[in-house]
């Protein structure tokens, strides 16, 4: 699955809906595995589209968040094997997508990956945190989340946020295929049940608290202080250009 929403694959409602549909198709056609990557040469995904959260239409922003939750359920809780070929920056929601896969290969270069929410004055939802603690040790996750740490490729490898470094996108995809090939001699049902049991607690936590999580997000986007910070953040991104 190749993300292709220039310039930075920010996750807006339309892209999330497309991802949700594609994940359904992959599950339905009984594919063995999926590799998630990006068509951009330098950005895997810039995370959530900030414009979806800035001065939002309430009905749309509710659908936006619900669709993000659905994409996470379908990716994090998939039966099929998932790997991410991270060929560029992966901040925030981009990191969430990568961590929701079972294996991550990142191309070397001046790229960064991590959950930077606290730097924007945002508390990452529990399921973002759960996804991170499913990937790196709890102590490292707490430190990274509280400090909004963006890891460079070497740091990400050292902490286990990524599993391998690749020379380029083709190499990243080849390495993801190498991971998928490890399951050739493992019975598929035993593999998928094991994966889902390992992920069950995090999945159940969001299933049980899905409405509450949505309400928290809706309150968050309607808070004038948050709107002001989003406005300043958008300006800072634009000034950079
Ligand atoms: C309770 C709520 C919890 C959920 C909260 C947060 C989860 C999130 O995912 S919030 C999004 C966080 N993402 C970021 O902070 C990343 C911001 N972007 C960047 O750091 C850089 O764009 C990036 C390193 C990804 C790529 O750098 P460049 O290749 O140099 O691109 P530009 O910075 O020049 O960006 C091009 C263009 O895209 C716009 N942009 C970038 N990111 C976003 C985004 N997340 N949403 C919307 N738009 C984005 C940027 O403003 C530029 O726009 P123009 O100036 O109009 O071209």
UniProtKB/TrEMBL annotation:
The keyword Acetylation applies. GO terms for cellular component: mitochondrial matrix. It is found in: Mitochondrion matrix. Its main location: mitochondrion. It catalyses: (2E)-tetradecenoyl-CoA = (3Z)-tetradecenoyl-CoA; (3Z)-dodecenoyl-CoA = (2E)-dodecenoyl-CoA; (3Z)-decenoyl-CoA = (2E)-decenoyl-CoA; (3Z)-octenoyl-CoA = (2E)-octenoyl-CoA. GO terms for molecular function: delta(3)-delta(2)-enoyl-CoA isomerase activity. It holds the Pfam family ECH_1. SUPFAM superfamilies: ClpP/crotonase. GO terms for biological process: fatty acid beta-oxidation. Keywords: Acetylation, Fatty acid metabolism, Isomerase, Lipid metabolism, Mitochondrion, Transit peptide. Pathway: Lipid metabolism; fatty acid beta-oxidation. Key enzyme of fatty acid beta-oxidation. Able to isomerize both 3-cis (3Z) and 3-trans (3E) double bonds into the 2-trans (2E) form in a range of enoyl-CoA species, with a preference for (3Z)-enoyl-CoAs over (3E)-enoyl-CoAs. The catalytic efficiency of this enzyme is not affected by the fatty acyl chain length. Homotrimer. This is Enoyl-CoA delta isomerase 1, mitochondrial. It comes from Danaus plexippus plexippus. The lineage of its organism: Eukaryota, Metazoa, Ecdysozoa, Arthropoda, Hexapoda.
């Amino acid at each position: 699955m190749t993300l292709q929403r220039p310039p930075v694959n920010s996750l807006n409602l339309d892209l999330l809906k497309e991802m949700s549909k594609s994940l359904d198709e992959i599950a339905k056609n009984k594919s063995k595995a999926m590799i998630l990557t990006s068509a951009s040469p330098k950005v895997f995904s810039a995370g959530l589209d900030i414009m979806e959260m800035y001065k939002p239409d309430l009905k749309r922003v509710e659908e936006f968040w619900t669709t993000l939750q659905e994409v996470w359920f379908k990716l994090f809780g998939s039966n099929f094997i998932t790997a991410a070929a991270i060929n560029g920056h992966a901040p925030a929601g981009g990191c969430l997508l990568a961590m929701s896969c079972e294996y991550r290969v990142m191309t070397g270069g001046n790229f960064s990956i991590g959950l930077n929410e606290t730097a924007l004055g945002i508390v990452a939802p529990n399921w973002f945190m759960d996804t991170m603690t499913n990937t790196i040790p709890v102590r490292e996750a707490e430190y990274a989340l509280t400090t909004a740490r963006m890891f460079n490729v070497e740091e990400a490898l050292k902490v286990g946020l990524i599993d391998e470094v690749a020379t380029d996108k083709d190499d990243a995809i080849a390495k993801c295929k190498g991971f998928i090939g490890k399951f050739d001699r493992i019975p598929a049902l035993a593999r998928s049940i094991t994966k889902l049991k390992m992920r069950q607690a995090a999945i159940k936590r969001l299933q049980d608290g899905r409405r509450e999580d949505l309400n928290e997000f809706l309150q968050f986007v309607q808070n004038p202080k948050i709107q002001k910070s989003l406005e300043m953040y958008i300006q800072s991104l634009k000034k950079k250009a």
